[in-house]
Amino acid sequence: MKKVKQILAILGIVVLLSLYVITLVCAIVDNSNTMRMFQASIVASFIIPVLIWAYGFIYRLIKKSSKDAEEAAKKNKESLKEKANLSTK
Q1: What's the domain range around 53?
Q2: How far out from the chain centre does Cα 56 lie?
Q3: Which of 11, 9, 10, 33 is nearest to 22 (CA)?
Q4: Would you call 52 helix, strand, or coil by DSSP?
Q5: Which of 16, 25, 45, 82 has minimal CB crowding within 10 Å?
């Protein structure tokens, strides 16, 4: 899992760096379409990191809630066993 996170982090860095390079090139080159590409690159430079953060945040919430559900199920199972043992005595 750690290796996958490292690969995804490196991939994210490469994507962001390429966006910054594209933004710089679009700002320097004078063409009819460069203004739209420049605007798209600027927007993507903000949107992509926010989406990456949001995906990670949601993943942590889901992972935490699944652990909480497992712990609650384990406690519930233990309490049912205790009640069963008390009723047989």
Answers
A1: 2-88
A2: 2
A3: 33
A4: helix
A5: 82
